Amino acid sequence: MATKLSTYFLSHRLTTALNCNTITANATNDPKHTNVRFLLPFHRSLSFSSFKIRNQNLSSQYKRRQMNKSSSTEDSESHHPQPQPPPPSVLSVVPDDETGASVHVDSETSTSVDVEPIEQLTEAQNSQRLTVSPEAKALAIDVNVEEDEEHSSASDEMKQLAVNMGGGEKLSSIQPEDLIGMIRNAEKNTLLLNKARVYALDDLERIFHEKDKLQGEINVLERRLAENDAKMKVAAQEKIRVELLEAQLEKLRNELAESGATERSVSDLFESQNNVFNNEASLLQNNTLLQNSSVHSLSEELGLLRTENMSLKNDIETLRAELSNVKNTDERVVTLVKQHSSMKSSLQDLESKLIASQEEVSKLSGLKVECKDLWEKVDTLQVLLDKATKRADQAILVLQQNQDLRKKVDKLEESLEKAVVYKLSSEKLQQYNELMQQKMKLLEEHLQRSDEEIHSYVQLYQDSVQEFQDALKSLKEESSKRALDEPVDDMPWEFWSHLLLIIDGWLLEKKISTDDAKLLREMVWKRDGRICEAYMESREKKEREALARFLKLTSSPKSSGLSIIHIAAEMAPVAKVGGLGDVVTGLCKALQKRGHLVEIVLPKYDCMQYDRIHNLRALDVVLESYFDGKLYKNKIWVGTVEGLPVYFIEPQHPEKFFWRGQFYGEHDDFRRFSFFSRAALELLLQSGKKPDIIHCHDWQTAFVAPLYWDIYTPKGLNSARICFTCHNFEYQGTAPGSELASCGLDVHQMNRPDRMQDNSALDRVNPVKGAVVFSNIVTTVSPTYAQEVRTAEGGKGLHSTLSFHSKKFVGILNGIDTDAWNPATDTFLKVQYNVNDLQGKIENKIALRKFLGLSNADVKQPMVGCITRLVPQKGVHLIRHAIYRTLELGGQFVLLGSSPVAHIQREFEGIANHFINHDDIRLILKYDESLSHSIFAASDIFIIPSIFEPCGLTQMIAMRYGSIPVARKTGGLNDSVFDVDDDTVPLQFQNGFTFLTPDEHGVNSALDRAFNYYRNNTEVWQQLVQKDMNMDFSWELSATQYEELYLNSVARARADNPDTKTLLVSLFSGAGAADGIRKVVGQVFQRSLPVTMAKRERVR
Q1: DSSP state at residue 170
Q2: Are 565 and 689 in contact (CB under 8 A)?
């Protein structure tokens, strides 16, 4: 039985889930059903079988016991039902169809076991091994308890013992001994069947284990078979490669025979081919272990190839004699290369000389233009002289006319005398005579008046000629003195700033008076040639003699433009963190070029780039400033940065405010910069400066505005108007109100809603709000950002304050320093280039790729650049997405920047490590000035996906270097980048690709369009690059707007205070000399011509 069951299950590869229905008869009439389900997973490749187990109850003794008990317990069973024990069972197995299996145990109570599939697996798993995990097993057992038939009597029970056999005969009478024997035999058979069932189940389990092992071996064999197939394919490919190599070898052999190639290169080539063939042979020999029949033939072919290669190698020996001529040719080529290099260096020298000559020609052209202007002025005076001569001629004509009139009068007198003769003849003649006398009187009066007019006209002409001669004389005198009066342009700004700092040092050291210092400052301010000459003469003399030489110049002061002092926490390049430093330097240089006196006050950080400060020295003076109820000393340093005079304040405070190794990020930043703001104003007061404008920047120096009006105006520092620029309203520097008392401000007066009280927390003060309230001019760095900060979202709590002070609040777009950011003169670049020669941009891309270890396989592969601080404002999640999107589009991506936020820095360090050896991605997580210039020059596309951006300078610098910006439409980006596909924007302003929504879809839309233009519209892209490089993002326009704000504010202040001195500009100073002369000459003739014309009309 066990063997048959094992064979059955193995033949059908059966795995089942058993559903057993066990029916137990009870003495009661109410059936009870119990259902239990277990799930057993099985392998899908095995078919399902069915079997039936029937349990026949042949024990008549058992039935007799039931019959004897039925009569005695009939009544009690109806009231107290007792469960009947199940009879012994005999198992029988009957195979069923392949869809399932059923097991039936039949007696007077029947038990059925239904085996049904639970799970179907996919066809791809047919070859996997059958596994039945104990955790996944479940057996579904439905137990149905049915009612057994009542046993009414013993005779009825005995009738059931009749067995209807196959022959149809009925056993009517059986002896009890035979029945007992039959029952015993049945019981023995039952025991045997039970044992057989147990053995069958054990064999079944063992067969399952054996089947698992066999299945595993089958899988291993299948894998090996697959490997052998793969190796056969590799061997076939290798054979093809060998054939191709043989063909190449034959081709090379023919080429070498024809051209006489170099012996060593050919020998090395064949040796490398032999090595390749040996490697191929070893690989094929390894494969021979699995596929002997197919690889053996390949090995034989390889052997033949090796033999042929050896013969070819022997043939190469014959070529050695022919190679000597080739070597001699190489030596000649080397000589020619050296000659070419020397000629190239000579050409470069000639080019440099040509450039120098062109510069001299440009200077000569300037002199020619100036000379031409002088000749034009002389011609103008000659024309005026000709006009005066013509007027004199006209006067002579008028005089002749008067003489004619006199002759006519004489004739009238004669006729009058004749008329007198006839007077007595008639009354009419008398009346006529009277009339004639009246006319004569009128004529005499008219003649007299005419004589007077002629005399005055002649006098006026003489006066005009005299004035013209005086003007011509003054012009000659002005021309002779022009060399001394006009500005000296050949001295750098560093020279003038150094001279200015020397004068201020003398003032602070009490060696010259305030008035003398002011006059000398104005001369430096105007770049007067006399003070330059005085400095050159006294440079080698003692300080006392130098002072005497300079004081001689104070006798003839000249007026000047505005005096502007910037108080800031940053200045590029010596102390730069972000765009603030660039703005301070660029704006100050532009204002200086426009003729204003510009000075800067900075903290003296220990981490500044001191090598970028020229003539740095400490003044022999100690400046005391108030803080925390005490006076603390400050050391004052002076130097020039980018041609600008700069004062550095070094506090002698025990907390070492600016000796921390970093610019910002300290726990006491509020105290550090409030101390600096007061010390800066104290410096202006003690040095006797009278600035017209004090310009402070961001919250670090926002304390200047309330300090100026509350403390220093009463002390006498009252000449200035305050301008405050907020570069980013995200940073407002709020602190508890009590900390404001340290710098001397009244906390009770300042911590009010209309002054410095923060709009979000009543117990805190907001320096930015205080500057907005106390300043005369409030600006931010772009027009769009000025609109955004007036909203609740963009204002960061200050929108109501800005709206209230909207009349003095304006947005001015920043510019860039076009001298520092100029690809034609940038010393950081490997190759300089300009808009007319873009080849240098390609060479810079190649150089950057080599430096960063990026792929140089495709020169035209677009490179995307990004230089930024990795902070949430800059859209770090969009930058991260842009890296991967660029990779998908087949471009290269270079990122330069770091993050002050720890988790952002760690995230990008992980990305950098992931792409550390990648051919197309490189992340440099620091700031490197020289590398930033190289990235601007090398990149084709520059991405700025900021969430909000007050202004942004990188998009302007990128366009200056020919890198097309991809930017989000916000803040200053919206004011400087205009989409090439936006038809509402004029064509000349379309310069980049923009997107609005700050998400991945927005980045994709703009970046995809940029890549499409770059690859499919080469000519349009070239034109776009040239247009962007020609755009003017200098500080000229921005400086003009600031200058207008300054002048209007100063004019309003002087209009409100009539006693304030008026700003006068000399008519004959500098470049305005010619205009002054023209005004003088014009005034002369404007006074004379109207009078003359009026008299002429009266004469007529």
Answers
A1: B
A2: yes
Return the number of other C-beta atoms located less than 10 Å from residue 944's C-beta.
26
CB atoms under 10 Å from CB of 301, counted, come to 16
Q: Give the tens place of pLDDT for each residue, 437-463.
A: 887 778 777 777 777 777 777 777 777
Q: What is the 3-state secondary structure (H, E, C) of 211-234?
A: HHHHHHHHHHHHHHHHHHHHHHHH
- The residue behind tokens 């000519």 is 1019
| pLDDT at 744 (0 to 100) | 95
Buried b / exposed e along 554-571 (16+ C-beta atoms within 10 A): beeebebbbbbbbbbbbb
User: Which carries the bigger pLDDT value, residue 296 or residue 709?
Assistant: 709
Helix (H, G, I), strand (E, B) or coil at 339: helix
* Contact predicate 979/985, CB 8 Å: yes
Q: Please, what sign has the CA dihedral across residues 393, 394, 399, 402? A: positive
DSSP strands (E only) in 932-992: 941-944, 964-968
DSSP string, 285-310: HHHHTT-HHHHHHHHHHHHHHHHHHH
For residue 727, give the nearest of 1007, 914, 953 by alpha carbon: 953
List the structure tokens of 677.
Answer: 């703001």
CA-wise closest residue to 897 among 930, 873, 932: 932
Cα atoms in the 13 Å half-sphere on the side-chain side of 746: 7
- Kind and range of the H or E run holding 72: helix 60-72
- Report the 10 Å Cβ neighbour count for 308: 15
CA dist 1009 and 287 (Å) reads 52
**Torsion angle, CA of 335/341/347/350, rounded to 10 degrees?**
-100
HSE of 346, CA atoms in CB hemisphere, 13 A: 6
- Range in 34-48, 213-227, 524-538, 706-720 the model is least confident about: 34-48
> Is 580 within 8 Å of 588 (Cβ atoms)?
no
Start-to-end Cα distance in the chain: 156
User: How many of the other CB atoms lie within 10 Å of CB of 390?
Assistant: 10
Rounded mean pLDDT, 888-912: 95
pLDDT surpasses 60 at 193: yes
- Whether 347 shows a pLDDT value over 80: the answer reads no
Helices (H) and strands (E) in the chain, counts: 31, 22
Q: Tell me the average pLDDT across 547-564.
A: 70
- Report the length, in residues, of the chain: 1100
- Checking if the pLDDT of 878 tops 60, the result is yes
- The predicted structure's pLDDT at residue 481: 56
Burial class (CB in 10 A: 0-12, 13-18, 19+), 953: buried
Q: Which of 582, 592, 583, 587 is nearest to 560 (CA)?
A: 592
Report the DSSP pairing between strands 964-968 and 941-944: parallel
In the structure encoding, which two tokens stand for residue 204, read together?
């079944």
What is the separation of C-alpha 1011 from the centre of its chain, rounded to a whole number of angstroms?
17
Q: For 919-945, what is each residue's pLDDT tens digit?
A: 999 999 998 989 999 999 999 999 999
Q: What percent of the chain has pLDDT over 90?
A: 41
Rounded-to-integer distance, Cα 259 and Cα 670, Å: 82
Distance CA 374, CA 361 (A): 20
The two tokens of residue 904 are 């952002």
User: In 171-290, which ranges are continuous DSSP H helix?
Assistant: 176-259, 263-288
d(C-alpha 747, C-alpha 737), whole Å: 6
What is d(CA 970, CA 978) in angstroms, rounded to the nearest whole number?
A: 11
Place of tokens 């001669």: 469
| Strand-strand pairing, 630-641 and 111-116 | unpaired
Asked whether 562 and 594 are in contact (CB, 8 A), the reply is no
Give SS3 for 993.
strand
Strand ranges (E), 868-1019: 892-896, 921-924, 941-944, 964-968, 993-995
Structure-token match 């070529």, residue found = 319
pLDDT tens-digit map of 505-518: 888 877 887 877 88
Spatial distance between the Cα atoms of 701 and 708, rounded to a whole number of angstroms: 12
